[in-house]
Amino acid sequence: GRSRTMGDRYEIPIVLQVFNRPEPTRKALDIILAARPRTLFVIADGPRRDRGAEADACRATRAIFDALPGDVEVHRLFSDENMGMRRRFASGLDAVFEQVEHAVILEDDCLAHPTFFPYCAALLERFAHDERVAAITGSNTQQGRQSAEARAYSYCFSLVGLPWGWATWRRAWASYDADLSLWPSLRRSGWLRDRLGHVAGGQWERVLGSADEVDSWWIRWSMSLWAHGRLAVVPRVNLVTNLGGKPLPGEATEAAMAARFGNLPTQAIESPLQHPPYMVRDPVSERRVLESMLPWSSVGRTVRQVLIEGHGTLRRFLPGGQ
Fold this sequence. Notes:
The protein contains 13 helices and twelve strands. By secondary structure, it is α/β, with parallel strands linked by helices. The protein has a domain at 1-108: Rossmann fold (3-Layer(aba) Sandwich), CATH 3.40.50. The strands form three sheets. It has an eight-stranded mixed beta sheet, with helices on both faces. It starts with a strand and ends in a 12-residue tail after the last helix.
């Protein structure tokens, strides 16, 4: 079936999101092709009209996919207009899941360890019909600081699944809440403050309350998981490195987080996987990751002012801050 690695071909469809960076795109693609995928979807946004050189960079990036091996079925989901990262990514995944039941998803600056692919395949199959699980993620930023219980198995479960290298199912992506329509009821429930404490929970409430100012699919995806009571799988070791870099003022939350968590080393995960006997969670790591994201979130002016006024020392961590 399409839910496992068969022979030497990788049967899970792989999605690669690209834009205007040919060099990292080529590196990410080389790693993907080494996994010998049968199906590749490429999602690309169009160039911004006010940036003249960007059209050439976008063309050069797309040209990389002109000469792929003939045994790879390639779906080029290229947009002529610039939709913005959030809208282009979400509309691209909508199109992917109209055609397939599950997929592995990478971005142009994400370099996966070779064992990331069989890890995703095994867990996509294992949790295919378990509604409690919405995502299989490849990033672990904790560098071995997880609880002993979480380290005892190949993976644990978390409220937080980072956006650099992950996999999901059509059934889970169907709950993506692009308009944050579920946020008011989640806010009223006090869910975030219960789990993160008053300060961090309150700050996340402000981030979500100003999400219209943030070009982030990941914030909306995370909120969708929380609203439906679903979890992400997090590997015991880091399987995907994000090339990182300094975020520019106004860049999406994912870029700001990558500047903080980028360039972490990867290592192999064991095979066969050591499955936890129950849904082991690591609340300490969960909270640490959620709290550590806050200062680097590239959020709208209102949220930036709240963070700076309430926590003056955070100014230097904000994109563009001094």
